Amino acid sequence: MMILLLQILLMLALLVLAIPAAVLLVQVLAARWAGPQPVAESPQRPRMAVLVPAHNEAGGIAEVIVGIRRQLQEGDRVLVVADNCSDATADIARHAGAEVSERFHDTLRGKGYALDHGIRHLAADPPEVLIVVDADCLLGAGALERIARVCWRSGRPVQALYLMHAPAGAGSRRKIAEFAWVVKNLVRPLGWHKLGLPCQLMGTGMAFSWQQIGQADLATGHIVEDMKLGVDLARAGQAPLFCPDAMVYSHFPSSDSGAATQRTRWEHGHLSVILSYVPRLLGGALASGQGALAGLALDLCVPPLALLVMMAGGAWVVSALVAVLTGWLAACLLATLIVAAIAAAVLLAWSGFGRDVISLRELGAAFAYVARKLPLYCKFMFNRQVEWVRSKRDSE
């Protein structure tokens, strides 16, 4: 009886794990071979404001503002919220040509509070479309106008393609991280977009109509406020739309401490969102029949790639041991299919989108990279990060 119960529990665990593995494979296949999904622009260029939340960004804020202003026209605005800054961020941003509003608070800290402050500052003369750009991000050509026009035409929040690049001369760990980012922020949302499904918000390169953003709950210290905002808008019937031909980009920190802080915030936040919001989205999808909610829930249920590989590998080892000890092969066969699906997705994503990022030989070193992240996931179980912490910049 005990063996039967363990077999049932193992199969249930494998069936749950099979869902994100299948979603990942479908997204990669669609990204590579599904037909294009046109993104219509408004013929009218809406009046836009670009909101840049910044905390101690003196080292790079001028370049960001100059890049933004190149893409603005008369009547547009760029507002920097210098949030709890102890450096010259505000003065440098003013000198670069931005409006600046400074915010100080001893306890209410985080990007969400800075965004809320900026929205209230702009409310006296609101734009038609508001775009959020992080203070360490640069823009691809025409990115602001493209997402503003798509937002104005579709009536939905719009997410530009957001890429992170490894620093010049980076080792294999940074290249693996860059490839994982390509899978997460390009391949997966592109696949879902080609299937007519929404994407997650990524924190920068996001465009909203004023009505959407003016009613959003932004004043929180949530460590992944972008994911939370995307879920909230989807539940309100305004699921985000991916715009892959408008790009914003940044670079991973060179320092190990900066990269570790950034990685912990993203991955702990992502896992928290999975636990908190995926059941609600699935419940909402079942109650309302909205495919967009179901699509977003399935997208969110895919954990960080390293964790998915780690869980699949662990599940296969356990299933193989059970097969050796009891002769029961069903679980081992299912675990093998899960591992094969993930491996196929990774290789197809690399061959279609990652050849310029990392070599196949370097990709083979990913197993060591995955193993190094085990403490990060253990920390989530026992001492998870729940507050927003800014990553250390290379200029510091």
TrEMBL record:
MF-aspect GO terms: transferase activity
Keywords tagged on the record: Membrane, Transferase, Transmembrane, Transmembrane helix
Domain of life the protein comes from: Bacteria
Record field: transmembrane: 277-298, 305-322, 328-353
InterPro entries to which the protein is assigned, alphabetical: Glycosyltransferase_2, Nucleotide-diphossugar_trans
CDD domains: EpsO_like (cd06438)
Name the UniProt record assigns to this protein: Glycosyl transferase group 2 family protein
Organism annotation: Herbaspirillum seropedicae (strain SmR1)
